[in-house]
Amino acid sequence: MDFTAITVAIADGVAELTLNRPQALNSLNKTLIDETRVALGDLEKNSDVRAVLLTGAGRGFCAGADLANGGFPNEEKRSPGEQTAHSMLIGFNPLVHDLAHFPKPVVTAVNGVAAGGGVGLALCGDVVLAAKSAYFVMVFGPRLALVPDMGVTWFAPRLIGHARSRAMALLGERIPAEKAAQWGMIWDAVDDDKLMSEARALAARLAKGPREAFKKIKEVLDASLDNTLDQQLELERLTQGKLGDLPDTREGVIAFLQKRDPAFK
Q: Which domain holds residue 104?
């Protein structure tokens, strides 16, 4: 498929998906959302792709929803609030779901501003890197009289706690990448000129890992947020029972005993 709002390049098991509306700071409109979802669906089915690297073109990662040109068709003549909720139902929320539940590792490289829904989009990644000049800002409340969306109210409290999440949402202050890393909101903040090389190296490293085990790691960690300890222990037991019979696990054990790197298939 020919894309107009994103680009996709695949090499050595890694799919690099770039939001490509730099003139609008990669803000989210219907075209970008639809194309990203189509691309993720294709990449999920592509056995040659073992990891995804998500980033933005130009000087920003994602400035959130394109309030000027991002609307979905309003053929039912819904009120502004009803149309916003409808757009979230058919576009924005499914995008977050597809990315957050993508069965392969996702590295996010935040190359500039991540604002509004762009914060949620960034935090969908399994490993989030940011350039030191990048920053995160929740503009919903203080600027737009809205609540944070695109999963921000789910991700942020779990990553940085309620106190910091409330202050970010209510004050709308910029959180520099290095502070975000100190808070545990992202994996690391790196020099601007090293962002993409480090992100690509991480994605390549993940692409060489055990595919089924990585998929299950994501599932088990997600389940832990709702499980009791005993429920989680049982899920770990059942999952290990399934993974333990796979060739990759046998290779991992043999490689460990032989003190060499595993060669996963």
A: 6-207
Contact 103, 218 (CB under 8 A): yes
Contacts of 3 (CB under 8 A, 6+ apart): 20, 35, 39
Shared-domain flag, residues 202 and 215: no
Report the phi/psi class of residue 64: left, alpha or beta, with left for phi > 0 and alpha for psi in -120 to 50: left
Q: Are the C-beta atoms of residues 110 and 63 closer than 8 Å to each other?
A: no
Bridge-based pairing of strands 175-176 and 135-137 is antiparallel
Q: Tell me the mean pLDDT per 10 residues along the chain, length 265.
A: 93 97 96 97 96 97 87 83 91 97 97 96 98 96 92 96 97 97 98 98 96 96 96 97 94 93 90
| 249 and 132 assigned to the same domain | no
Do 228 and 199 share a structural domain?
no
- Torsion sign across C-alpha atoms 138, 139, 144, 150: negative
* Helices and strands of the chain, counted as H and E runs: 11, 10
pLDDT score of 70: 62
Strand duo 14-19 + 6-11: pairing = antiparallel
Give kind and range of the element (H or E) at residue 142.
helix 140-144
> Where in 32-120 does DSSP place strands (E)?
51-56, 60-62, 106-110, 113-115
- The number of beta carbons lying within 10 Å of the beta carbon of residue 199 is 27
Q: Are residues 60 and 190 in the same domain?
A: yes
Decide if 76 is inside a domain: yes
pLDDT at 8: 98
| pTM for the whole structure | 0.94
Asked whether residue 1 is assigned to any structural domain, the reply reads: no
